[in-house]
Known about the structure:
- The structure is a single chain.
- The chain is of the alpha/beta class.
- The protein has a single domain (2-190), classed as Rossmann fold, CATH 3.40.50.300.
- The chain has ten helices and five strands, in the order βαβααααβαβαααβα.
- It has helices at 14-25, 32-41, 45-54, 62-69, 72-75, 91-103, 118-132, 139-153, 156-162, 175-190; strands at 4-8, 28-31, 82-85, 110-115, 166-170.
- A five-stranded parallel beta sheet has the order 2-3-1-4-5.
- The longest helix has 16 residues, at 175-190.
- The chain starts with a strand and ends with a helix.
- The structure holds adenosine monophosphate (AMP).
- Adenosine monophosphate binds next to helix 2 and helix 3.
- Adenosine monophosphate is lined by residues 10, 32-33, 36, 53-54, 58-60, 65, 86-87, 89, 93, 136, 145.
Amino acid sequence: MLNIVIFGAPGSGKGTQSEKLIEKYGLKHVSTGDLLRSEIKKKTKLGLMADSYISKGQLVPDEVVIRMIEGLFEKHQGTPGFIFDGFPRTLTQGKALDEILDKKGEKISMVLSLEVEDEELIERLLKRGEISGRSDDNRETIELRLKVYYEQTAPLKEFYREQGKLVRITGHGSIDTIFESMATVVNRIIA
Ligand code: AMP
């Protein structure tokens, strides 16, 4: 299987690039953010709980998101692979994902890390907020989310670098240019 983690700060283009990777390689999209937003929309118990963290720019507790990832293989049997977008976001989640995959005799193939400067991230998220209406795309929450990213999520880079899986990709430039860099890396690994 081809299991890709698309990694990066909020606003780095993970969602956009995931869509293109899915289209090209036929992978299943696993976005914990999308799953949580769908729960919020349906006003489920899980959604209400998640919303209290998301609207403040905080991470939803590890055990909640890990539970959402379990059962993925049963749900998507026969898929050529997964693209993990916005998961893992903590070391605990990274280790849990390795364990879940290991139980199925699978592993992460590579981690594509989109590198974008803070100034550009803030600008993109503010712009997205005007269109998306997402409760967390406002300046105050954006700044908190970036802080959370550097404190809790960025250390995962070292975790994957040690495993020899981290590939840094510049997230500046056009969507297509960035995608070409990613596809070059993916093609080299699946060749
Ligand atoms: P995203 O759409 O990936 O930017 O996620 C939006 C928000 O959902 C994040 O700021 C978190 O509050 C929450 N969230 C999404 N994925 C995770 C995760 N893997 N761990 C904890 N919280 C998450």
